[in-house]
Write a structure and sequence with these properties.
28 helices, 6-stranded mixed beta barrel, alpha+beta
Length: 895
C-alpha cells in the first residue's frame, strides 16, 4: 500500500507541474500580445508578433514536452523497478515463466536462424535477384531437362534478356606435382560463369573467351582454401603450373575467401574451363547446369519468352546425334523453365524447413498459453490490489499497461535466455541437418535473427498478456474488493479462460505428436525397405580416376582396373571386390533412353530413359545384390567384346512379366543400332535413396563395345566396392592405398566411405525431421502436461472448502479423485477433438516428406489420441490425489 501511495502522489505532482507550465505559456503570450496592442497593432498582428518575439512559442512548448517526456520516462523506469521487485518476491512464478518462454523462444530462434540462412538471406553475390537458373521442360517427357551446349551457344549469341549465360558441371580430378598427389573436386565452367556471379578474383583473373576456346593453352583458377593449403598463401602462385589429370595447366587466378559456388553441396577446390567446340556440338546433352544474369529491368516472364523465341533456332542450327532423328526433338515440344537461381539452390529443402518452423512455432504458442495461464492465476491473486488501485483513481489503461509491462519483462528475460540456448544449440542443429544442406555455412545468429527474437518477445508478451487483461481489466474492477472475501467460491466464469488455454495446449500438442508419429512411421517404412544390398556397414567404397595422360588405350585402362581389383581381392579379410560407375545412393546417376528389341516404337516417340550403371564382374556379388536369373558378366565377355547386358528385376517384369522371360532378349541404346543380349536379371537396387522406389536399371560392361556411338567405351572414373569385416577400419584403408598404389603409383583412391555412410545419408532428411519433430512434440507434450496438471492443482486449492464440505457429508476419497480426473479428461478430450480437426488440414503439408505412409494414417492418429488421453489421466490424477488429504475441519475452519 505504501508503494501505491507514493505513485499516486507522483502522478498528482506531475499533473500539477504540467498545469503550471501551461499557465506560464499562456501568461507570456498574453503579456507580449498586450504590449504589441499598446503599440497600435491589431489583435491578430499583436499575437503573431508575440509568437515571433518568443521564438514562435516553440521554446516554451519544447520545455513543456521535455518536462512531460522526462516525467513519462521517470514513470516508466519506476514501473519497471516496481515490476522487477514484484517478480523478485515471487521467484517460483518468475523462474517457471521465464524458463517456459526461453524454451519456446530459444527453439524458435534456433530454427529461424536456419530458415533465414538457407531460405531468406539473399545469395552472397551482387544483385542476386538478377541471377536465374536456365532449364527446360517437355510436354512429352516428364522431368526437368537442364541445358546442353547447343542451347548455350544460341542463347548467348541471340539472347536479348541476358547480360550473359554460362554452363557448368561438377568434376573430380587428380592434382600432382605439388606436395602429395591427391584427388580434388573441381567445377568445369564456361568463361561467363564466374563473371556472371559478380565476385572478382582476389589474385589474377578469371577465364576469358580465349581460355574457353578448344585447343587454347590450358588454365586453372584456384579456390582460396586450395591456394592456402597447397601454396601457403603465396601470391606468386599465379603464373605457376599445376598438373591436373596428368596435363600441365597455368594458374591464372585465385578466388577470394568469401567466394563459394552455392549451387554445389561441397566446396570446389579448383575451376577449369569447359572448352566446348561449337563446330562439333550436337543437339541434346541436357546434363549441364546453366546460370544467367538478366539485364536490368527484365522480368523472369520476359526472359522465358525470349528463350521460347530462340528454341527453334537451336534445332535449326545443330544436327541431331546419330540414332536420334531431328523429329524426336521437335515432337518433344521443349519449353523454357527459367527460375530464380536461389530457388534452384534451395531445392526441396524449403518444404522441410518451413514444416519444421511451423512445428516449433506451435511449441512457442503452447509456451505462450502456459505463461498466460500462469498470469491468469497470478492476476486473480492480485484482484484485491487491482481493486484498491482502481479505487484510488488508476484508470483501466494504466492497470492494463502494468500487466502488459510485467509480461513484456518476462518475455525479454525469456528471450535473452532463449537466445543463449539457441546459440548453444545451433551447432548441434546444423550437425543433425541432412548432409548437403544448401548454404549451411551462412547459418548463424545475425542481425535479422536478433530482430526476429525481439519481435517474438514483443508478440509473446502481447499474446500472453492479453488474457489476464481481457479477463480482469475489462470486468468491473470494484468486484476485486468484494470477491477478495474468503467465503466466496470461485465461479465458472473465472475457470473458463484457463480451461480454453489448456484445451488449446492439448490441441497444439496433438498436431505436433501426429507429425512426429507420421515421421516415425516413415522411418519404420524406410528401414523395412530391402535396398538391394546386404550389410552396408561391411562394404568399403572408394573412387579411382585413371587420367588419359597416364594410360591412353581403352583396353589398357580396363586391364589396369582389373589388376587393381585382383590386388584388392588378395588383401587378407577381403571377401570380394568389384567396381562400377557409381555406388548405390551416392547421388551419381546416369540415364539414357533404352530400346527393347521386341517392342514397337511409334514414329516420333522418345524411348524412356533408364538408369545406366557400367560394372565389372564381382560388383553385384560384392554388394550382395541377388542374381534372380541367368549369370553375371565375366572378364571373358569384356575382353572378347561380346555384346551383353544385365537388367534389374523390375526392368524385366515391366517388359516381359517375369525374370526368366527376359533372358536372351536384346536391348540397345537409342544412339546405336547394335543390340546387347540380356544374360542375367539381378535384384532391384534403390539407387536414388531408400525413400525413392528402385529404378529400372540396365547394367553394361565397364569396357563396352558399340555403345553410345563409340566403337569402344571405357569408364575411367570408377567406384570400387570391397566386402570385408574390416570395412571402415584404418588398417583396411592403409591396405587399400597400398594395393591401388602397387598397380600404379599415380592412382589416388578418393572418398573412402562404407556403403552404410550413403545408406544413412539417404535417410538423413527423414532422420532430421524425426529428431526435430520428436523434440518439438516432446516439448509440447511436457508443456501440455504442466498446463493440465497446473489447472487441476489450482482447482483443488481453490475448492478446498467445497472438498471439506463434501468429505464432511460423507464423500469418499475415490469420488473426489474421479471428480477432478473427469475434469482433466474433459479438457483433454475437447483438445484432442480440436487437434483432430486441425490436423486434417495441416498434415497435407507433410505429404511430400512421407514414405509409404498417408498423411491421415489412422494408426498414428489412434496412438496419439490414446497416448494423450492416458497422459491426461496421469496429469490429473497426481494433483487430484491431494484432495483426499484435505482435513474437513481444517478446510472449514480456514474459511
Amino acid at each position: 500500500m505504501r508503494g501505491l501511495r507514493v505513485r499516486w502522489r507522483a502522478i498528482v505532482r506531475r499533473e500539477a507541474v504540467e498545469r503550471e507550465l501551461d499557465e506560464e505559456l499562456r501568461y507570456h503570450v498574453e503579456r507580449k500580445t498586450e504590449e504589441n496592442i499598446a503599440k497600435g497593432m491589431s489583435p491578430q498582428e499583436a499575437r503573431r508578433a508575440a509568437r515571433i518575439e518568443l521564438g514562435g512559442m516553440e521554446q516554451v512548448k519544447e520545455r513543456v514536452r521535455a518536462v512531460r517526456a522526462g516525467a513519462w520516462l521517470e514513470t516508466l523506469l519506476r514501473d519497471v523497478r516496481f515490476v522487477l521487485r514484484r517478480l523478485r518476491k515471487n521467484p517460483g512464478f518468475t523462474v517457471v515463466a521465464v524458463l517456459t518462454l526461453a524454451l519456446g523462444i530459444g527453439a524458435t530462434t534456433a530454427v529461424f536462424s536456419v530458415v533465414e540462412g538457407v531460405l531468406l538471406k539473399p545469395l552472397p553475390y551482387p544483385h542476386p535477384n538478377e541471377l536465374v537458373y536456365v532449364s527446360h521442360t517437355s510436354s512429352k517427357r516428364a522431368g526437368d531437362w537442364q541445358s546442353g551446349p547447343s542451347n548455350y551457344f544460341i542463347y548467348r549469341e541471340q539472347g536479348r534478356a541476358f547480360q550473359d549465360i554460362g554452363l557448368y558441371e561438377g568434376d573430380s580430378v587428380s592434382v600432382t606435382g605439388i606436395a602429395e598427389p591427391e584427388q580434388v573436386s573441381a567445377l568445369d565452367v564456361t568463361d561467363g560463369v564466374l563473371p556472371i556471379l559478380g565476385v572478382p578474383p582476389m589474385l589474377g583473373r578469371v577465364f576469358n573467351s580465349a581460355d574457353d576456346s578448344p585447343g587454347s593453352p590450358e588454365t586453372v583458377v584456384l579456390s582460396y582454401g586450395f591456394w592456402r593449403r597447397k601454396f601457403g598463401g603465396d601470391p606468386s602462385a599465379v603464373g605457376r603450373t599445376l598438373t591436373v589429370d596428368g596435363r600441365p595447366r597455368e594458374i591464372i587466378g585465385v578466388m577470394p575467401a568469401r567466394f563459394r559456388f552455392v549451387m554445389e553441396p561441397q566446396e570446389r577446390e579448383i575451376y577449369l574451363p569447359l572448352q566446348l567446340n561449337r563446330g562439333k556440338t550436337l543437339l541434346g546433352q541436357y546434363h549441364y547446369f546453366s546460370i544467367a544474369r538478366l539485364k536490368p529491368g527484365i522480368t523472369l516472364a520476359q526472359a522465358n519468352a525470349d528463350v521460347a523465341r530462340m528454341l527453334p533456332s537451336v534445332f535449326d542450327s545443330f544436327p541431331a546425334p546419330p540414332g536420334f532423328p531431328l523429329r524426336l526433338f521437335l515432337d518433344a515440344h521443349f519449353a523454357p523453365n527459367l527460375m530464380p537461381f536461389k530457388q534452384e539452390v534451395v531445392g526441396d529443402t524449403g518444404s522441410v524447413l518451413w514444416v519444421l518452423m511451423g512445428g516449433i512455432g506451435l511449441v512457442l504458442l503452447i509456451a505462450c498459453a502456459n505463461v498466460a495461464n500462469l498470469l491468469l492465476v497470478r492476476a486473480e491473486g492480485r484482484q484485491h490490489e487491482l481493486g484498491v488501485r482502481a479505487a484510488l483513481g488508476a484508470s483501466r489503461g494504466r492497470l492494463a499497461a502494468d500487466l502488459f509491462l510485467e509480461c513484456f519483462i518476462l518475455a525479454l528475460l525469456g528471450s535473452a535466455l532463449g537466445l543463449l540456448m539457441a546459440y548453444w544449440a545451433l551447432p548441434s542443429l546444423i550437425a543433425l541437418a541432412p548432409r548437403g544442406l544448401p548454404r549451411a555455412g551462412e547459418i548463424g545468429i545475425d542481425v535479422p535473427v536478433l530482430l526476429f527474437t525481439l519481435a517474438v518477445s514483443m508478440v509473446t508478451s502481447l499474446v500472453a498478456g492479453a488474457f489476464p487483461v481481457l479477463r480482469h481489466i475489462r470486468a468491473d474492477l470494484g468486484t476485486g474488493l468484494r470477491e477478495a472475501g474468503r467465503t466466496l467460491s470461485e465461479s465458472r466464469e473465472r475457470h473458463r479462460a484457463r480451461n480454453i488455454l489448456v484445451i488449446a495446449q492439448v490441441a497444439l500438442a496433438f498436431i505436433l505428436l501426429v507429425c512426429s508419429g507420421l515421421m516415425i512411421r516413415t522411418f519404420q517404412a524406410l528401414i523395412r525397405v530391402q535396398p538391394g544390398f546386404v550389410d552396408p556397414a561391411g562394404i568399403q567404397t572408394f573412387g579411382v580416376h585413371i587420367p588419359s595422360a597416364e594410360v591412353t588405350g581403352d583396353e589398357q585402362v580396363a586391364r589396369m582396373e582389373d589388376e587393381v581389383q585382383q590386388r584388392i581381392q588378395a588383401i587378407p579379410g577381403v571377401t570380394s571386390a568389384g567396381f562400377g560407375t557409381s555406388v548405390p545412393m551416392d547421388g551419381n546417376t546416369w540415364k539414357d533412353p533404352v530400346l527393347v528389341e521386341d517392342r514397337p516404337y511409334p514414329a516420333g516417340e522418345i524411348p524412356v530413359s533408364r538408369h545406366f550403371v557400367y560394372i565389372s564382374p564381382g560388383y553385384l556379388a560384392s554388394l550382395g545384390t541377388p542374381l534372380v536369373a541367368g549369370r553375371d558378366f565375366t572378364w571373358t565377355d569384356i575382353y572378347n567384346k561380346i555384346p551383353v547386358a544385365l537388367v534389374s528385376e523390375n526392368f524385366a517384369r515391366t517388359y516381359w512379366s517375369d525374370a526368366n522371360s527376359a533372358l536372351g532378349k536384346r536391348i540397345r541404346i537409342s544412339t546405336t543400332d547394335d543390340w546387347h543380349e540380356i544374360i542375367g536379371v539381378v535384384g532391384n537396387v534403390y539407387r536414388d535413396g531408400a525413400d525413392k522406389d528402385a529404378p529400372l536399371t540396365a547394367y553394361w560392361p565397364v569396357l563396352a563395345h558399340n555403345l553410345e556411338s563409340n566403337d569402344v567405351m571405357i569408364q575411367r572414373d570408377v567406384h570400387f566396392v570391397v566386402r570385408s569385416p574390416r570395412a571402415g577400419s584404418a588398417s583396411l584403408r592403409d591396405d587399400l592405398l597400398r594395393a591401388v598404389g602397387s598397380a600404379d603409383a599415380h592412382l589416388l583412391p578418393t572418398g573412402m566411405h562404407t556403403l552404410d555412410y550413403f545408406y544413412r545419408r539417404s535417410m538423413a532428411r527423414t532422420s532430421f525431421m524425426l529428431v526435430m519433430l520428436g523434440i518439438a512434440g516432446g516439448m509440447a507434450l511436457l508443456l501440455a502436461i504442466v498446463g493440465l496438471s497446473g489447472i487441476i492443482a489450482y482447482s483443488v486449492s481453490q475448492r478446498s472448502r467445497e472438498i471439506g464440505i463434501r468429505m464432511a457429508l460423507g464423500a469418499q476419497q475415490g469420488d473426489l479423485v474421479r471428480m477432478f480426473v473427469r475434469h482433466g479428461l474433459l479438457l483433454a478430450g475437447v483438445g484432442v477433438a480440436c487437434g483432430l480437426a486441425a490436423s486434417a488440414a495441416v498434415m497435407r503439408l507433410m505429404k511430400s516428406l512421407l514414405f509409404h505412409v498417408g498423411p491421415s494414417d489412422p494408426l498414428t492418429y489412434l496412438a496419439v489420441s490414446l497416448g494423450l488421453i492416458a497422459t491426461a489421466v496421469l496429469a490429473s490424477w497426481i494433483p487430484a490425489s491431494r484432495a483426499t488429504h484435505v482435513d474437513p475441519l481444517t478446510a472449514l475452519r480456514s474459511e
